[in-house]
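Open question from group meeting: does this chain pack into something compact, or does most of it stay loose? Before anyone orders reagents, we agreed to write out a predicted structure and look at it together. Recording both the input and the output here so the notebook holds the full record.
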Amino acid sequence: MYNHAEVKNFLMYDAEFFLKYSRDYLKASVSEETLQEAGETRILLNQLINSQAQSNLQAERILQSESYLRKIKGILKLQRHKQSHEFERYESHSPNDEQIIYCVECSSDSMIPEKNSETGYRCVYCDNEYSDDIESDCTICGITWPSDDLRRVVWTDEGDEIICPRCRRDPSYVKDD
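C-alpha cells returned:
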C-alpha cells in the first residue's frame, strides 16, 4: 500500500533528494523538469554559499593583514622614537625627559610623545591618547603630578586651572593642624 501525492512549486535546500525520494518511494508524481529545477537551485545555492564564505574569508584575511601591518608600523615607530631619543641623549649628555608610557588599551609600553595629541602622548598601536601614567604640572605650584591626581577648576576671570592635591588641600596629601 503506497501513499500517492503530487508535489508542485516545492523549494528547500535539498529539494532534489526529497523529490527523488518522494517519487521513488512514496510514489508521488514528480516531473523530470521539477527534479532538474530543484537540482539547479541546489547548485546555485551552493555556489552562493561558497562565494559568501570565500568573500568572508577574504575580508577576514584583509582585516588580519591590516591589523598585522598596523602593529608592524607601530613597532617601527616605537623603535625610531627610542633610537632618536638615545641619539639626542648622547649628543646633549643629558637625561631623557620624555618617556614611553604604558597603554591600558594595548597592555604594552607603547605611548610616545605626540605633538598633535590632546594629552601630549599617543599609542603607536591603537592611537589611544589617555593613560593614568601621563603627568602634568600644577598651575599653582608647578609640581609635576600624575594626571589622574590633578583636578581642573574653573576660575571666573582667568579660565581653567589645573590644581594638584596639595594646593587644593586634599586631606590625603596635606596634614591638618
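Observations to bring back to the group:
Strands lie at 101-103, 108-113, 121-123, 135-137, 144-146, 151-155, 159-163.
Helices lie at 15-25, 32-92.
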